[in-house]
Amino acid sequence: MQINAGFIGGGNMAASLIGGLIPDTVPASNIIVAEPRDERRNELIDLFGVQVTADNNIVCQNADVIVLAVKPQLMSDVVQQLEGYQDQTLFISIAAGISIESLQAWLGTHNPVVRVMPNTPALVGYGASALYASASVNNEQKEIAESMLNAVGISTWVNRESDLDIVTALSGSGPAYFMLFIKALVDKAIQAGLSEAVANELAMQTAIGAATLAKLSDDDLTTLIQKVTSPGGTTAKAMEVLNNREVPEIIAEAFDAAQKRSEAMAEEFSH
Ligand SMILES: NC(=O)c1ccc[n+]([C@@H]2O[C@H](COP(=O)([O-])OP(=O)(O)OC[C@H]3O[C@@H](n4cnc5c(N)ncnc54)[C@H](OP(=O)(O)O)[C@@H]3O)[C@@H](O)[C@H]2O)c1
To answer: Which among 170, 130, 152 has a CA at the least distance from the CA of 257?
Structure first.
């Protein structure tokens, strides 16, 4: 893509996006990252060969797409101090819970803003991101935002900004839920006598296999579950325990808690 991409904040999520963008989607020479810590700036040069600066406004002066990648609690201060960008500069915010209305109020402009909820598997090219665009984002800018996120996985647009709170509870926080499940299986397998290496290898491949099968199969999830669950067999016994202990209801409760927290963060960090 013929764009100059800037990042405000060069932490974990910024690094996973940059790693996906270079060299094919955006060349390293067209990426500039503002990051306050010396040591981290040097790491970013070593890792990616991108340009770095300690001054956020140097990014504003040099990029036509700016990814806001600082922690949500810093966003208000950071964005209010940005200067030197153009009217048409596209801002892409990956911060949880910060509304487009707040971002535009802090910018003091009507610049186009896309909000994204990415997730950490972006680090290894398996990210799942949802995007929402403000009214001032044109089609070309939508394509740019989409291509940037597709460089680290898959992406999809949502129609309402509030859907991002649901997405946060699903795919934003989701990697932790699946990892908890895998860890519980691994810990139990080790306790039952398998070596750690064997338990890890089998549990992780099973998670990848289950997700891949569910994604590629024409069957829905209920049918796929039935296909593993022969009557009177081992899976049937395990599923009986999981359902009796109301695991689906517990997952729904955890989901609600994450969604509510995302909605509350919008209140907390929007002033
Ligand atoms: N991690 C996730 O799973 C995840 C998922 C979805 C969305 N997000 C969102 O992604 C954003 C970044 O998260 P992260 O996990 O990448 O956090 P992170 O690793 O802490 O990255 C934030 C970076 O911003 C830098 N920074 C601090 N103050 C700054 C300033 N005034 N100007 C410019 N840069 C500054 C930090 O530098 P120092 O290290 O020196 O403080 C750090 O390198 C957050 O808004 C989060 O909500 C994260």
So the answer is: 170
Q: How far from the centroid of its chain's Cα atoms is residue 220's Cα?
A: 26
**Residues 95 and 125 sit within 8 Å (Cβ to Cβ):** no
Q: Which CATH number fits domain 5-161: 3.40.50.720, 3.30.465.10, 3.20.20.10, 3.40.50.920?
A: 3.40.50.720
Give bridge partners of residue 81 from the DSSP assignment.
none
Residue nearest to atom 35 of ligand 1 (CA): 9
Q: Is 71 in the pocket of ligand 1 (CB under 6 A)?
A: yes
Distance 124 CA to ligand 1 centre (A): 18
Q: Does domain 174-266 have CATH number 1.25.40.10?
A: no
pLDDT in tens, 75-118: 999 999 999 999 999 999 999 889 999 999 999 999 999 999 99
**Encoded amino acid at 197, one letter:** A
Instruction: Tell me, using a 6 A CB cutoff, whether residue 99 lines ligand 1.
Output: no
Instruction: Identify the CA nearest to 200 among candidates 213, 210, 187.
Output: 187
Q: Which amino acid, one-letter code, is at 90?
A: L
Q: What confidence category does residue 271 fall into, taking pLDDT thresholds of 50, 70 and 90?
A: low
| Ligand 1 centre distance from Cα of residue 142 (Å) | 23
Ligand 1 atom with least separation from CA of 10: 43
- For the chain, the domains span 5-161, 174-266
User: Ligand 1: which atom is nearest the Cα of residue 93?
Assistant: 45
Cβ(261) – ligand 1 distance below 6 Å: no
Predicted local distance difference test score (pLDDT) of residue 123 = 86
CA 10 to centroid of ligand 1, rounded, Å:
7
Which of the two residues, 266 and 243, has the higher pLDDT score? 243
